[in-house]
Amino acid sequence: MALKYVVKKTTFGFDKEKAEKYVARPFNVVTVDFKMLCDQVTKVGFVPRGTVKSVLDGLIDSLITYMEIGASVSLGEFGTFRPSFGCKSQDDEKEVTTETLKNRKIIFTPGSLFKGMIKSISIQKLDSSKTSSSATPDNGNGGSGEGGNEGGGEAPDPAA
Question: The pTM is what?
Answer without folding.
Answer: 0.67
